[in-house]
Design brief:
Radius of gyration: 23 Å
Helix content: 40-55%
Order of helices and strands: HHHHHEHHEHEHEHEHEEHHEEHEEH
Bound molecules: pyridoxal-5'-phosphate
Shape: globular
Largest sheet: 7 strands, mixed
Strand order of the largest sheet: 1-7-6-5-4-2-3
Distance between the termini: 55 Å
């Protein structure tokens, strides 16, 4: 045990050394060939080795190649640095190693608080039992749409979808692909996922939504659910949630909100944010990812429901060996989703929120949204960049557009810029397509990012163009 205790101290020091070194190192670097061989090609060992040897391996071959999201100049996809409190408690959750399927133990009970706190943070009503932690928003969306399907079809668990008319799901053309994946997985068919056109601010066009619903009804297709976005991955756009819920109620659709990235944005607490998020609290289900803006170490997603009976009706299946006499009336978490053995995610979520407090989290959100506005202003002020969407949350979508270059050249450059910037190691940005053209997007989630980092990002893009 003493050896293990020494190794535990070494592991903690290694983690802290890593966190301290990240901001001073390259944001990202390609994996050296020898290390790639080590990472991917190790033979299965016949004999074991001491843990301290393994820690040295991890330090030299694994920690040396971070994805980049711990760095203040990482602006790719939607990946935050880990919250220090979340990092520190992760080994404790592993030391307990419970299954949070349910039962009477610290892990399962703490999840009740973690989920309720998340609901309170984003202003969502929370009757007891109405939500659970998930691996991420993709799983949250599967659980939400499975619940919608059960509600609308009624006997789907018994008969499947046989004999039912096709069920349509509506999501804006800017909505996340996880809605599509969930619909495919649930047997709804990707063909019946309707991509609702967006307006110039990349928000769901409500008239188009109404037209699509009417056309489906006329064709004998049953509208099932509308999945609105509270923060799209491309631009951070928030669909007009108040209008969407009206349409959903009018036609008896399930109203799901994908707040995976953006739901916490409501904490900006400005008149703009209050207006933009109005209606989110009326959702039948809301997906939000503590492993995004909140910084809980991956994995930590969450799905919240208005009515806890919904997911329980869709998933509860308690085999005889798990039946408990005198069980808690909320039952087990495994009755509310597809996972049986469930990890102790709640400790990382609880510790992150408890460490920052509501005020600290709101400060972090305001920091991200404020910097996004600054970057948008820098882009607008530059004559070689073009802003593509308003900066509503903490994502800025823009394009490199130098004078004198034709559209084809500008398109090729914007496609090549993300990889060229990444290779330089000073900043990390990813690309996307907006309105049919290549675009750049920066997602600002790091509490240590400064305006100087944003100015450096634009310089790095210009320098990368010279490398291309
Ligand atoms: C808006 C949005 N929805 C859903 C997802 C999927 O979330 P996850 O990767 O946690 O499954 C993402 C991921 O980036 C996202 O940005």
């Amino acid at each position: 045990m003493d050896d293990l205790r020494r190794a535990a101290r070494l592991a903690a020091d290694t983690a802290m050394d890593h966190l301290a070194a990240v901001p001073g190192g390259p944001v990202w670097q390609p994996v050296a060939e020898a290390d790639r061989r080590w990472l991917t090609g190790q033979p299965l060992p016949a004999a074991g080795r001491p843990v301290t040897d393994l820690l040295a391996d991890v330090r030299d071959h694994v920690l040396a190649y971070p994805m980049g999201n711990g760095h203040p100049r990482f602006f790719g996809w939607v990946n935050s640095p880990p919250s220090p409190a979340g990092v520190l408690v992760a080994p404790l959750a592993a030391a307990m190693n419970p299954s949070c399927a349910g039962g009477e133990h610290g892990g399962a009970l703490l999840e009740r608080t973690a989920v309720r706190w998340l609901a309170e943070l984003v202003g969502f009503p929370h009757p007891p039992g109405a939500g659970l932690l998930t691996s991420g928003a993709s799983m949250a969306t599967i659980i939400a749409l499975a619940t919608a399907r059960q509600r609308v079809v009624g006997d789907v668990r018994e008969t499947g979808l046989y004999g039912h008319p096709p069920l349509a799901v509506y999501v804006s053309a800017e909505g996340h692909s996880c809605v599509h994946k969930a619909a495919e997985l649930l047997g709804l068919g990707g063909r019946y996922v309707r991509a609702v056109p967006v307006d110039r601010a990349f928000r769901m066009d409500i008239d188009a939504l109404r037209r699509l619903i009417r056309a489906d009804q006329d064709a004998g297709i049953r509208p099932l659910a509308v999945a609105a976005s509270a923060g799209t991955v491309n631009t951070g756009a928030i669909d007009p949630l108040g209008d969407v819920v009206e349409v959903a109620r009018e036609h008896g659709l399930w109203f799901h909100v994908d707040g995976a990235y953006g739901a916490l944005g409501v904490l900006a607490d400005s008149p703009d944010a209050r207006r933009a998020f109005a209606g989110m609290e009326l959702a039948d289900s809301l997906a939000l990812d503590p492993h995004k803006w909140l910084g809980v170490p991956v994995d930590a997603g969450c799905v919240l429901f208005r009515d806890p009976a919904g997911p329980r009706d869709a998933f509860s299946l308690v085999p005889p060996y798990l039946r408990e006499s005198g069980a808690d009336e909320l039952g087990w978490f495994s009755e509310y989703g597809p996972e049986q053995t469930r990890p102790f995610r709640a400790l990382r979520v609880w510790a992150t929120i408890a460490h920052l407090g509501r005020d600290g989290i709101a400060h972090r959100v305001r920091h991200g949204t404020g910097l996004a506005r600054s970057l948008a202003a820098m882009v607008e002020a530059a004559d070689d960049f073009e802003l593509l969407a308003p900066a509503i949350t903490s994502i800025v979508a823009f394009r490199y557009r130098p004078a004198g270059r034709d559209t084809g050249t500008a398109e090729a450059l914007n496609e090549a810029i993300p990889a060229a910037v990444q290779r330089r190691g000073q900043a990390f940005i990813t690309g996307t397509r907006l309105s049919g053209a290549a675009a750049l997007r920066a997602c600002i989630l790091h509490p240590g990012t400064t305006e100087a980092d944003l100015a450096l990002l634009l310089q790095e893009i210009r320098a990368a163009v010279r490398d291309i």
